[in-house]
Write a structure and sequence with these properties.
- This protein has a single domain, classed as Up-down Bundle (Four Helix Bundle (Hemerythrin (Met), subunit A)).
- The protein has four helices and no strands.
Length: 138
């Protein structure tokens, strides 16, 4: 596994504590401890869910590409692109509804779209790298 990817994966594992803390924030929102409107509640839930799922997907992609024997450079590129989406998408959901009683999402929604592009690029790179490794092993 590429050393840069190993460092990224270690840092990613540490972010899980932050995602867990985000869960406690959502509990406070659900219990009315944090004043929010319906848009904020929905976006906070979406941000938290995407963070957990995309971090898990990024770790699975990294392990899968490594186990399949994909090129370390391509495996790292694909995995890091997926993990980048795990930052951009949740950030877009959380930051686009900051403020007192927003009526609609703000400009940070662009981060969700950038994250979606990063996710797409990452899974395509990783999928092709795994396929190439499998075909070359025949």
């Amino acid at each position: 596994m590429h050393p840069v990817l190993v460092i990224v994966l270690g840092a990613t594992l540490l972010t899980v504590s932050g995602i867990a803390f985000g869960g406690t924030f959502l509990l406070r929102v659900a219990n009315g401890g944090v004043p929010t409107n319906d848009l904020q509640k929905s976006f906070f839930r979406a941000g938290h869910a995407h963070a957990g799922v995309l971090v898990t997907l990024g770790l699975v992609v990294a392990v899968t590409t490594h186990v399949a024997g994909a090129s370390p450079g391509w495996a790292a590129a694909g995995s890091i692109a997926v993990l980048t989406s795990a930052i951009l998408i949740p950030a877009g959901f959380f930051l686009s509804v900051l403020g007192a009683n927003p009526a609609r999402p703000g400009r940070m929604m662009a981060s969700v779209w950038l994250g979606a592009a990063s996710l797409t690029v990452g899974v395509v790179i990783s999928g092709v790298a795994v396929l190439a490794a499998g075909i070359s092993a025949l």
